[in-house]
Amino acid sequence: MDALISAALEEVCARLSYGIPVTDLWPALRGALEAAGLPLSPAVKRVLWARLLALPVISLVVGDGDGSPVAPGDPAEKDVGEAEGGACGWCRARRSGNFLGMYGHRFAKSEL
After folding, report:
1. What integer best gives the mean pLDDT of the chain?
2. What residues does the General transcription factor 3C polypeptide 1 winged-helix domain cover (predicted)?
3. Coil, strand, or helix at residue 3?
4. In degrees, to the nearest 5, what angle opens at C-alpha 111 toward C-alphas 10 and 61?
5. What residues pair up with 20 in beta bridges, in sequence order?
6. What are the boundaries of each domain within the chain?
7. β-strand 87-91 against 20-21: which pairing, if any?
8. 91, containing H or E segment
9. Spatial separation of the C-alpha atoms in residues 10 and 106, rounded to whole Å
10. What is the pLDDT of residues 23-66, one digit of tens each?
11. Containing H/E element for 95?
12. What does the DSSP 8-state code read for residue 48?
């Protein structure tokens, strides 16, 4: 399960400030799920969703990654089916930079 959480975190971080729609997360994890020998069942989705949102660097935003956080207590925080209705997983900027290897880009002599 830890390998699946790591793969999910990579997918979220790779989307940078836009986040990844929850419906796009599942196809992106197909290879990791196959490697783990797990089917993409509702139970697996629930566990992955709960474990991913438990990470302190992951936030849940509404819509197309415009940065509007999901309201506290929103059903999408607990129910993956609700989250699939239009929520995105989003990673904080510092974590995304670390994922891409951009640790000290502001000190570089060249522009990105």
Report:
1. 76
2. 1-86
3. helix
4. 35
5. 89
6. 2-107
7. antiparallel
8. strand 87-91
9. 23
10. 888 999 999 999 999 998 999 988 988 898 888 877 777 765 45
11. helix 93-100
12. H
Note the residue count of the chain.
112
Instruction: Say if strands 20-21 and 58-62 run parallel, antiparallel, or are unpaired.
Output: unpaired
pLDDT at 111 over 90: no
pLDDT tens, position by position, 73-83: 777 777 788 77
* Rounded Cα gap, residues 92 and 97, in angstroms: 9
Q: Is 89 exposed, middle or buried (0-12, 13-18, 19+ CB in 10 A)?
A: buried
Residue 19: partners with Cβ closer than 8 Å, 6 or more residues away: 12, 61, 65, 88, 89, 90, 91
Q: Return the structure tokens found at 96.
A: 């995304």
Quote the tokens at residue 68.
């509007």
Longest dimension (CA), the chain: 49
Backbone torsions φ then ψ of 40, nearest 5 degrees: -85, 75
Which is nearest to 51 in space by CA: 12, 92, 101, 95? Answer: 12
